[in-house]
Design brief:
- The complex is a heterodimer of chains A (about 120) and B (about 110).
- With about 120 residues, chain A is mainly α.
- Chain A has five helices and no strands.
- In chain A, helix 3 packs antiparallel against helix 5.
- With about 110 residues, chain B is mainly alpha-helical.
- In chain B, helix 2 crosses helix 6, helix 4 crosses helix 5 and helix 4 runs antiparallel to helix 6.
- The N and C termini of chain B lie far apart (about 60 Å).
- The chains are: A mainly alpha (about 120), B mainly alpha (about 110).
- Chains A and B meet through helix 3 of A and helix 3 and helix 4 of B.
């Protein structure tokens, strides 16, 4: 019995091949919000708040060395909508409570230029 | 009347409408209330219970923006809202001018 390779066979083969390739590619995790690492989330802050949280733009506050709980309260307020800002609301929205705690702790621990002022 | 005085007057009005320039000397007097909390390292209010943020090292622009946020109610904090509502734009500029050159508390 002979086997004739027809267009129908070729199309079936092509379709199967494409299906296998796309299945293989899908198993490589796409970079979505849920796969952003904490380091990546922290790195995003530098765009406005400066490297290591030391701001180079007077519009944006420095974060380095700020009190951890104050930073945490601020991020939570942006996330809940209690406090609004065109940029910060969007930045805080995808953060989990764990992210917020970790990011606040991170910036509080960074060496910075913030200090308590005094009248004298 | 010659045009020059009118031009100068118009320019000065325009400058006044822009961000008020701060006077650190005046600001030192106006900031004495602020320093009651912000001038004490690691100070925590009775309510809400989180550290009063460090202001030394922040920019004058940010300090004024924060005060305006409390004055307008956009930023919420009972004490800060009350404090900021008593401040004019000039007061805020003066306070910020003082803070950015204030020495560090020991």
């Amino acid at each position: 019995m002979t086997f004739d390779l027809t267009m129908k066979h070729m199309m079936l083969g092509l379709a199967t091949g494409l299906l296998l390739v796309s299945a293989a590619r899908a198993s490589e995790a796409p970079v979505t919000e849920s796969t952003r690492t904490l380091e990546e989330k922290i790195a995003a802050c530098a765009a406005c708040h400066g490297p290591g949280g030391i701001s180079e733009n007077p519009m944006y506050p420095s974060l380095a060395g700020q009190y951890r709980d104050y930073l945490e309260v601020s991020l939570k307020a942006y996330k809940s909508g209690a406090r609004t800002d065109p940029v910060m609301s969007g930045m805080a929205a995808p953060l989990s409570d764990h992210d917020i705690k970790a990011m606040a702790a991170y910036f509080a621990a960074q060496p910075g230029k913030l200090y308590t002022p005094t009248l004298e | 009347m010659r045009p020059l005085p009118w031009i100068v007057a118009a320019l000065m009005t325009g400058m006044g409408a822009a961000q008020a320039a701060g006077d650190a000397e005046a600001g030192k007097i106006k900031a004495s209330t602020c320093m009651g909390c912000h001038g004490i390292p690691a100070y925590i209010n009775a309510y809400p219970t989180y550290h009063v943020p460090r202001l030394g090292g922040q920019s004058a622009e940010y300090i004024v923006s924060a005060l305006k946020g409390y004055r307008s109610g956009e930023r919420k904090h009972p004490t800060m809202e009350a404090q900021a509502k008593s401040l004019s734009d000039q007061d805020m500029a003066d306070i910020a001018a003082f803070i950015i050159q204030a020495p560090a508390a020991k």
